[in-house]
Amino acid sequence: VALYARTQRRSKLKEAHDSGNQNGGSDDKNKNTERNYLNILPGEFYITRHSNLSEIHVAFHLCVDDNVKSGNITARDPAIMGLRNILKVCCTHDITTISIPLLLVHDMSEEMTIPWCLRRAELVFKCVKGFMMEMASWDGGISRTVQFLVPQSISEEMFYQLSNMLPQIFRVSSTLTLTSKH
């Protein structure tokens, strides 16, 4: 999954809307801009097919906004809901392996502290787990592989903390079969 940021899209639309009202212009131009299907909103995605990339057949490009770089996203954020919809498409179209940027970003920045990374990873892990459980009821539990990617510049300590979080969230309880002896 490739995440692409459309950073000031909403502010540009708002500025265009405000400048149209200040000049006494009609809102028709702004309505056309908002209806244009080339303007992708946060949480929406598009798919590209690839034959020249090793082991990658399709790429999902998820549109996100600046909220992804802040620590304030929730399970109802457009980026998380877009990730859910991507997993849903994978399920319905028999895509069995997907790679997801764990922190929903490709590069680390100064505001991405250790607590920020841990909160974000926990949110993504838990949401993906919930989405996988939801999707399993649709396809009969076909085996799927989810790979979580971390930025290259992440510290070794942070990598180990994130990898220790994985078995805690995705723990599997073993089943016990009871039979009666007659």
TrEMBL record:
Location of region: Disordered: 1-33
Lineage: Eukaryota, Metazoa, Chordata, Craniata, Vertebrata
Coiled-coil intervals, chain numbering: none
InterPro entries recorded: Fy-3
GO cellular component: a single term: cytoplasm
UniProt name for this protein: Uncharacterized protein
One biological process term in Gene Ontology: regulation of mast cell degranulation
